Each structure stands twice: as C-alpha cells, then as structure tokens.
Amino acid sequence: MRSSLDIDVAQPEGFRPLSLDLRVPDADGAPLVVFLHGGGFARGSRKVFTPGIGVERSFDRIVAAGLAVASCEYRLSGEARFPAQLDDVDAAISWLTAHGADHGVDASRLVLWGVSAGATIAALTALRRTDVRGVVDWFGPADLVTMAAHDTGEAPADTREARWIGGAAADLPDLARAASPVHNVHEGAPPFHLAHGTADVHVPIGQSEQLAAALTAAGVPVELTRVPGGEHFWRGVTDTDPLFDAAIDFCLRVTR
C-alpha cells in the first residue's frame, strides 16, 4: 500500500485549505473510493473512519481489497452552510480526476462512501453528478423534513441539521428539501448500498428506509441492510467485518 497524506486540494476564499489523505494499492489503476466522515456536519476528521474503528479495520481493509481511498475534508457547519460542502467534495473529485493517475488511481471508476452526515453529503453529491458509479451510505440523514420531527431534546433551530442549513426545516422548507437526498432522487441515479442499525437513536433507521423507497420508486438499484441492535457509528455491533465486506463487495461490483 502507498499513502500520500495531507494533500491540499482546494482553498475556498476566506477559509482554511482543504486536504485529503490518499491510500492506494500497490497495483496501478485502482478504482477510487472517496470517503466522507461523519460528525453531525459540525465536527469530525478525515483521519477517522468511524469512532471505535481504527485505520487497520477500515481504510486499510478497503485498500487490501484493491480499492484506493481518498478521505476528504469538507467545511463544517460552523465554517460554512449548505451547499458549501458539496462544492468542497466537487473540488476534491476534480483534483483526483486531474492527478489520480499520477498516484496509481483510476478516478473514472468512482464510488462515494459516507457515514452519518458524510453519507448525506455523499448521496447529494452523487445525485447531482454523472460520473459516480455508486454510493455507500451508512446511517445518513436522508430527509431533513422528517428528521426535524425526530425528538432530540433540542430546539428545532438548534439541531445538527438546522445549524447546517441555517435554520429550522419548517422555516426553510425549500432549503431543507434541497439538502435531503430523498427529495433529490431521480431516474438514472447511481446504485446505492445502504446500511443502518435498528437501534440508532441519533438518525432513525426510517431515514434509510425512506431513501431506499425513493430510489426503488425511481428505478434506481438499491440494497438496504438493517443491522439488528446496531446503534449510531455501529455501537452495539460486535463484529463490523461483515458490514465492511458487503460495502467493499458493492464498490468492486459497480466499478468493474
């Protein structure tokens, strides 16, 4: 495996540089996974796949299967509101398209993989581009309108999603829909692989079920894995290897 860490790929005016970490198999021409971390749109790091799952069991596992992984930063909600994060992912993809071959990457075979908030950003990015082969969405918020009805104990304008779009979904209905993958599904979208724990109290499994239903109605291939007893970030799941294996298999299939 070859690693190129801390690569600056963009610097939006007035903001810090945005970086990615690239891990590539020894053989050239590897398909590319662009990974987007979670953290409620407000925190998180490209260096952490999910809390409690180390590099060896996540990034290294994906690379060992023959896939390159670019773990990318995006601006957090305290820095910039939606849709700035989609611009950041586009910038990372543009850099990888221009320079990936120099690092042994075939960026034309592209999959987006996100967890939690990163899954929302991955899904939205894929639904607005034509060069994405597939999306791995782990327990991402899919509909900000119905998420707003989920009791978090916070005021509607103080939820993670509200801070991302700049206000409560009820006050910004058009923006809430624009930031919701469910409301952006269309015929011809790339295939989706969804996985969600049945005991997730932060992002209810109904979010992934809504997205799966919308994709199915649009004729988009989708697979949804319900993980019994799984909580957010796979807490409560003793063995996450089968979840990684299923997601990796999906990535390999759609990038052939």
UniProtKB/TrEMBL annotation:
GO molecular function: hydrolase activity
PANTHER family: AB HYDROLASE SUPERFAMILY PROTEIN C4A8.06C, ALPHA_BETA HYDROLASE
Top-rank taxon: Bacteria
Domain BD-FAE-like: from-to ranges: 21-215
InterPro entries associated with the record: AB_hydrolase_fold (IPR029058), BD-FAE-like_dom (IPR049492), GDXG_lipolytic_enzyme (IPR050300)
Record's protein name: BD-FAE-like domain-containing protein
Keywords: Hydrolase
